[in-house]
Amino acid sequence: MNSLLVNYLDENKKEIIGKLSELVAIPSVSENEAEVKKALQYVLNLGRELGFESDSLLDGRVGTIEMGEGDETLGILVHVDVVSAGDVQEWDAPPFEATVKDGKIFGRGTLDDKGMVIAALYAMKAVKNLGQPLKKKVRLILGTQEEVEWTDMNEYVKKYELPDYGFTPDGEYPICNIEKGNGDIMIEFEAGDRPEDGIYIEEIKAGVAKNAVPGRASATLSNGEIINAAGRQVHSCQPEKGINAIFELQGELSKRKLANNNLLTLINEVRKAFEDIFGESLGLDSESEYYKGEFVHRNAFSPTILKTENGKAKLNINIRFAYGADFNEILKKIEEWAESLGGRVIGVHSTPAVFVSKDKPFLGALAEAYEEVSGLKNEYTLAYGGSYAKAMPNVVSWAPIFPGEEDTCHEPNEYIGIESLMTSAKIFAEAVSKIALTEKSFK
């Protein structure tokens, strides 16, 4: 472990926390184009201040910050957009105002992914400050639509030269060389029927993001009464860690004598089909949790949005499918389920599962850096969430959650531990130095 790298980062700890706090204060929710561009520009400006070449690409949808020369390029893929804060009443402090407390920094994006944006940038600066010639290029690639449909990175991949290998600090430690696939299926149902007798459901509202298990849901009845239900919002990559408010709302509605209509049937059927998480009731459960001896887990399903508008009900099913699973087969069975209820699929989006061989030389450098700085043993593991690792070849998700740490991505009171933030910056600096300061090829 290079003490000069560690010393630089420790000396600039206060600045790192301050810059992260300023970035968190920009409410760059993916759908808010102006604020997302503002966040990107903030990081690009910071890159210039630190002495790097910074470029805004694709009309401000992607940015790059680069250093070094050479035939190989190490890519570090991060994103400045965040998911919605959801119900701000569930937060103990304002979500877009970084709060430092008990050795933690609270705020939307601290963990996913703004903390790692700052950590990676200062890691690059630590290596640059060594004053040694860089034998490879190091490129920080900043996305702006990671939490939605990747219109940014998909276009970048088509138009620009890609790094030879790299990582995205948007998952967990140790190295995640396998990553689940991610899919969203949006279904539309008729919802405007009004029974002649009795009280019935007029409206339903649940969910704020396709990739978050909803923590709040409500139904408006024909007599004007509003039924509310609370769950626990979590990242939809591991829905078993949360409580889906759609299911809770169905439970509340089942306690009342309501006239049957399409909305009542729909919410009943949604719970019946998806409450088991792993798709067993629809015949979508995985045959095995292993692929060629590697742990890939199981297919997992979450209804993340259910809302009514203009006589229609829209339902989004978020799917995390294991490597080796066929997304088209999953889509076919969900289409059949929807059609059996009079619904139709109106939108489909998916990104593939990732599998990168453990034998890739660049992974060895990442592993050494992790072990030397953290003192923990590296292993190769599965990432449950989706990341930019899916966007291009030879990229793995790596960081920021250490073994045993709490994952608060997409949750109220999201936070990153200051010690973890700093340790990640040191790991990144060590990894960059191992790769960029030598003539050795890491392809």
Low-confidence regions: none
Widest beta sheet: strand line-up: 14-13-11-18-19-10-20
Rg (CA only): 23 Å
- Strand residues, percent: 25-35%
Categorize the overall geometry. elongated
Largest sheet: 7 strands, antiparallel
Number-wise, the strands total 25
Structural class: alpha+beta
Tally the helices.
Answer: 10
User: What level of helicity do the residues show?
Assistant: 25-40%
Mean pLDDT: 96
Keywords:
27% strand, alpha+beta
Give me the secondary-structure topology.
Blueprint: H1 3-11, H2 13-24, H3 33-49, E1 53-57, E2 62-67, E3 73-79, E4 99-101, E5 104-106, H4 114-128, E6 137-143, H5 151-159, E7 165-168, E8 171-172, E9 175-179, E10 181-190, E11 201-206, E12 212-213, E13 216-221, E14 226-230, E15 234-235, H6 245-253, H7 262-274, E16 290-291, E17 294-295, E18 300-309, E19 312-321, H8 327-340, E20 344-351, E21 354-355, H9 361-374, E22 380-383, E23 395-397, E24 400-401, E25 415-417, H10 418-436
Parallel strand pairs: 3-6, 3-7, 7-23, 8-24, 9-22
Antiparallel strand pairs: 1-2, 2-6, 4-5, 5-25, 9-21, 10-19, 10-20, 11-13, 11-18, 12-15, 13-14, 16-17, 18-19
